[in-house]
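How a chain folds remains the central question behind the approach discussed here. In the encoding step, the backbone of a single protein was reduced to a row of integers, each denoting a local shape. We regard such an encoding as a compact summary of how the chain folds. The sequence in question and its structure tokens are set out directly beneath this paragraph:

___
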Amino acid sequence: MPSSLEDFEKRLSKKYSRKIVILRQDMTDKFVALAVHVAAKGINRGYSMEKIVDRMVEACTRAKGHSHWHCITGRRFGFNVHHDKDYLLEFTVDNHSFLLFRTKEMCEKDEES
């Protein structure tokens, strides 16, 4: 694991007083920080996982201006998903695992381009 990722995890862990581990990252650090912020704050406030997922998808949609975001959470899980390039993140906050990804929007506007 590159030291820069370890440093990033340590900064996030210290900021939220939680153990943050980035397992797979195919998005910018800024966007990772947003997702971790939503998850850690939700856990700190005792929100249900459903509410945390809802807030994470809402935050991603607002930040990027695109829909088709998906978030899976649980204690342990495996996955095989198709996602847009630069839009996949798998991380843990303490013992809660999160998979956040975006799929390509298929709409008439995209087909016309």
Remarks:
- Confidence is low (pLDDT under 50) at residues 107-113.
